[in-house]
Write a structure and sequence with these properties.
The complex is a heterodimer of chains A (262) and B (446). Chain A is mainly alpha-helical. Chain A is built from eight helices and no strands. Chain B is an alpha/beta fold. The chains are: A mainly alpha (262), B alpha/beta (446).
Chain lengths: 262, 446
């Protein structure tokens, strides 16, 4: 029996349930949101089981193919989401993080299981390092994105002076802002490290440090936006709506890079 | 059975209500006196500015005259006024009334949170004075859980009930916790003071007051425990404020768009919340368009309250359904208690027969070892319990549904004498509650 597939299905089932339970209160008079983090935790445990058993079955780190990388990305996104949720209790994170993990896992299921080609001169550990760093950068960025999205939504609700039509209370502007900033502080150095190691990996494969391919360009665009947001926040004391909008743009670029270009 | 006698904001005008309302310091003794009144078994008085309810456990026949007489003795109110403005709810209606009151469905402002606290206070007082017993205790506890259900399962408590609530709710939407926030008050009038007190009540800790007359600002700052600020330094000081309440008598706006932009820039984009309760307005409406600045004037807040009251009205339908459900559940439970005396009698009866027969045939068994003796006793006890299991269930169920029809039948089948009506109703209820423990006790006694 293929244990990794078995665990993966369980994880998917829990993520789906968690996703449904986070959305039900918007549609119907059901207070199911309390169970969402538990479902997500259960899914994450099963997902961990899937990754571990896959690694054991293949006798290598399960970051060898694109689907594996994406699965690890979903895993780390859920991990970061759970960590931030237990710390800050922002309910809105459910609504962004779980569908995101689901989409990434779904896409990973569609892609062919080809090994990422490696130049013989390149040490595989560098590629693994690059992927791990990038994966956590994106996971942290997804939290920043969720918080920024909540900020923009709440800002609109407050400016419109009409009571919220959403089925739930958004967290306060200040807590959205601080979660956005903290997760950005994590995402940016990781992203920088990821892009640098990526360039080295690419140099090992193509013998050029930088080819102006769309995927690389997108990554750099995302990185530049992130740098601007962070500089604006830290140096010029920018906060609030514009910072949130820029974070959303940066995340969109990263997501395009991850899902669209491969 | 539970009875509610009293008046509320819809049945009586304020002049009558204030005559009937009990001063808090007299309430405890009044509850004790009410319990001492003719025919009253248990008593609780709920007295707020919007209602005075006597919640009692007694038989309904004399209730009206006894309770009217009680109110006339206690409060300076005439019998005629009471007759015109009081309601008397019996059993189902009384239960529903208590549930609706605790859930804030009977309040003048539906969904306001205060009433539940007031009911809880009255309950604590009644408990201290010893005026309530098992029936009202059960009723009130159930009412608290109904109120909680209504608050969590409907959005009735989620909408602001007044301008002040709306303003605090918005401040929480922006800042989350208000504990270490600074509020600045422009103007030193009554409105400004009320608004500030409301925010302080919600945790705001530091207060700045600016007013054209520095003396007035200083006075108000002293009352509120804050700091006064010269009026011409208002804009500089505003950079420290998270919330600004404007209520000056100025004929034209004193804060323009430019000012707000400067303040926001100086605050490095941290949000600032303007509450403009002055008429004519103190803050230029354009201020709301500045990034990270939020401006609500009197109309905006009133709009929120109005929208909230529409929402609450919709939610009331759901809440009333919950109350209906809970009322039926509670009455069913009460009725199942009524079967208690019959159940006790039945068990006693069968037990006695078994004991009698055992002692009759015991001699023929000869000498028994202690283990055998035990086994014999256990066999008899378990035989009795098993035989009575379904009749007991049937009795409880029939009592909960349609009343005592089956009770008579079972009495006839088992040949039980009708009980002499000496024991109080409550005694029976207590027995039923502890019934399983009791049967084991009995086994051990012999």
């Amino acid at each position: 029996m293929d244990w990794s597939l078995f665990f993966l299905r369980i994880a998917l089932a829990f993520y789906c349930l968690g996703f449904v339970s986070s959305f039900l209160p918007v549609l119907a008079r059901l207070n199911t949101r309390r169970v969402t983090p538990w479902l997500a935790s259960a899914g994450w445990l099963a997902h961990t089981g899937a990754l571990v058993s896959l690694g054991r079955a293949l006798h290598r780190c399960p970051l060898g193919t694109i689907p594996e990388v994406l699965s690890a990305l979903a895993w780390s996104a859920v991990l970061v989401y759970l960590g931030v949720f237990w710390r800050y209790r922002l309910e809105v994170l459910h609504i962004v993080s779980l569908p995101l993990a689901l989409v990434v896992m779904f896409v990973s299921g569609l892609l062919p299981e080809e090994l990422i080609p490696l130049a013989p001169s390149l040490r595989p550990s560098l590629l693994r390092f690059h992927l791990t760093v990038i994966i956590f950068a994106i996971a942290a960025l997804s939290i920043s994105f969720a918080a920024s999205l909540a900020y923009v939504l709440l800002d609109r609700v407050l400016k419109s002076k009409r009571p919220s039509r959403l089925g739930f209370r958004l967290p306060s502007l200040e807590s959205c802002d601080s979660v956005g900033q903290v997760s950005l502080l994590w995402a940016f150095p990781l992203m920088t490290l990821g892009i640098v190691t990526g360039a080295i990996v690419s140099a090992g494969m193509n013998h050029t440090l930088w080819a102006w391919e769309p995927k690389e360009t997108l990554a750099v665009v995302a990185w530049v936006i992130l740098a601007v947001v962070l500089a604006a926040r830290l140096v010029w004391g920018w906060r609030g709506r514009n910072a949130a909008l820029l974070t959303i743009a940066a995340f969109a670029a990263v997501l395009l890079r991850v899902l669209g270009v491969y | 059975m539970p009875i509610v006698y009293g008046m509320n904001h819809s049945s009586a005008p304020l002049p009558v209500r204030e005559k009937v309302a009990f001063p808090p310091q007299l309430l405890r003794e009044a509850m004790t006196r009410l319990k001492g009144a003719d025919g009253v078994v248990e008593a609780l008085i709920l007295s707020t500015c919007n209602r005075t309810d006597l919640i009692v456990q007694m038989s309904p026949e004399k209730a009206s005259c006894v309770l009217t007489a009680f109110l006339m003795r206690e409060r300076p109110v005439s019998g005629e006024e009471l007759e015109r403005h009081c309601y008397l709810h019996v059993e189902r209606e009384a239960v529903r009334h208590v549930f609706r009151t605790a859930a804030s469905l009977d309040s003048m402002v539906v969904g306001e949170a205060q009433i539940l606290g007031q009911v809880k206070e009255a309950y604590a007082l009644a408990e201290q004075s010893g005026s309530i017993g098992p029936v009202l205790d059960g009723l009130l506890r159930r009412a608290f859980s109904v109120a909680k259900r209504v608050r969590t399962e409907t959005a009735i408590a989620r909408h602001p009930v007044s301008i002040a609530y709306a303003a605090v709710g918005l401040a929480r939407d922006i800042f989350g916790d208000l504990a270490d926030r600074t509020v600045m008050i422009l103007g030193a009038g009554k409105m400004a003071r009320l608004a500030a007190e409301h925010l302080i009540g919600n945790g705001v800790s530091s207060i700045l007051v600016a007013n054209r007359s520095y003396q007035h600002a200083d006075d108000l700052a002293r009352v509120l425990g804050g700091r006064s600020v010269p009026f011409d330094r208002m804009l500089q000081e505003m950079q420290k404020a998270d919330i600004v309440i404007a209520s000056t008598a100025s004929p034209q706006p004193i804060i323009g768009r430019e000012d707000a932009q400067n303040v926001s820039r100086a605050r490095r984009g941290r949000p600032i919340f303007f509450i403009d309760i002055a008429v004519p307005r103190d803050v230029d409406p354009g201020v709301n368009e500045v990034d990270n600045v939020y401006l609500y004037d009197l109309d905006d807040l009133q709009g929120l309250v109005r929208a909230g009251s529409d929402e609450r009205r919709k939610e009331m339908v759901v809440a009333e359904k919950i109350v209906d459900q809970e009322t039926e559940a509670y009455l069913g439970w009460m009725k199942s208690l009524e079967a208690a005396p019959a159940i006790v009698a039945l068990r006693q009866h069968v037990h006695d027969i078994a004991e009698h027969e055992v002692s009759r045939y015991r001699a023929r068994l000869g000498a028994l070892s202690p283990t055998q003796e035990d086994a014999l006793r256990q066999m008899v006890a378990s035989l009795v319990n098993k035989l009575l299991h379904f009749p007991t269930l049937a009795l409880k169920r029939s009592a909960a549904q349609e009343g005592g029809g089956r009770v008579e039948l079972i009495r006839e089948i088992f040949g039980i004498e009708p009980p002499s009506r000496t024991g109080s109703e409550n005694g029976g209820a207590d027995d039923a509650a502890t019934e399983p423990a009791e049967s084991t006790d009995r086994r051990d006694d012999r």
